[in-house]
Write a structure and sequence with these properties.
six-stranded parallel sheet, Rossmann fold, transcription, DNA binding
Length: 213
């Protein structure tokens, strides 16, 4: 990657953040920002159309969350590597993002040089994690069973609650304004985190662990 320009797509719901990032990367001839998006849904569309090397993805956005966007890009086989750039480093943010397919995870207080280095590494397919996130992932590996119930995202909990009511995937998609494919992705993540293989077992495990009820 050192001998060519790295192309970028910025996905963040704050215009000031997008402007700042664009200006920062514009100052270095080694980068080229192809576009910007204000939410996950738009971010997926632009990533598939513009085919950047790296997508800088925020997580909590009104117009489609970053985790859902990452999962959708992974499902559709997008070439772009996703580098999460956010202010949140809780278990419920970091682990779902990595599981969804993010190549790296940085916090917005990262120095400019660290961000540039991370983008270059992501473009090469290398994993980049801020120290705080790396520590959380190490903890998750060491305590997977105890951590599983704590790392369900808000959307995964919503899906789980609807599953417990006997709601079909199609009905869940309609209720939450997401696609059936996204519902299936959430279910796959739920099964993995709860250590089960189907809907009934997921509901039983959730009640047993106090996630539901």
């Amino acid at each position: 990657m050192a001998d060519r320009t790295i192309t970028l797509l910025i996905v963040d719901d704050h215009p000031v953040v997008r402007d700042g990032l664009r200006g920062m990367f514009a100052s270095d001839p080694g980068f080229d920002v192809l576009g910007e998006a204000a939410g996950g849904v738009e971010g997926v569309e632009l990533a598939l159309r513009l085919d950047p090397d790296v997508v800088l993805m925020d997580l909590r956005m009104p117009a489609g969350s970053g985790v859902e966007a990452i999962a959708e890009l992974t499902r559709r086989g997008a070439r772009a590597k996703v580098l999460v750039l956010t202010t949140y480093d809780t278990d419920s943010d970091t682990i779902p993002a990595i599981e969804a397919g993010a190549t790296g995870y940085l916090l917005k207080d990262a120095p400019r040089n660290e961000l540039f280095t991370a983008v270059r590494a992501a473009a090469e397919g290398r994993t980049v994690l801020s120290p705080a996130v790396a520590s959380r992932l190490v903890g998750a590996v060491r305590k997977p069973a105890a951590l599983a119930a704590k790392v369900l995202s808000a959307r995964e909990r919503e899906v789980l609650e609807l599953v417990a009511k006997g709601t079909s995937n199609r009905e869940i998609a309609r209720e939450l304004f997401i696609s059936e494919a996204t519902v299936k992705t959430h279910l796959t993540h739920l099964y993995g985190k709860l250590g089960v293989k189907d809907r009934a077992a997921a509901v039983a495990a959730a009640y047993d662990r106090g996630i539901l009820g």
